[in-house]
Amino acid sequence: MNGTTTKKLLDILKLTAISPGRLEEMQNAVKTVWEAKRETIAMLKHDRMLIDADWQLIDDFTVVDDPYRKVVAIQRETSFHT
Fold this sequence. Notes:
- This protein is mainly α.
- It has helices at residues 3-12, 20-44, 55-61, 69-81.
C-alpha cells in the first residue's frame, strides 16, 4: 500500500463518500446562512448611510454556495452507473 493506491482503495471502500447526515447538516447550515444574509441585507437597505449602495452588486458578491453540491452530483451520477 502506498500513496498512489490509497485514494483508489478509499474510493472502493466508499470511505471518501459524504454521509447523508453530513449532507443534510450542510444543507441546513447553508440555508441558515442564506436566510441571515437576506435578512441582514434587507435591514441594511434602510440604513441612511448605505442608501446609495449597489445592492445587486452586494448580493452578487455575497453568494452562499453549498460546498458539497458538486460532490453530491458526482455521487448521484456514479450511483446510477453501478
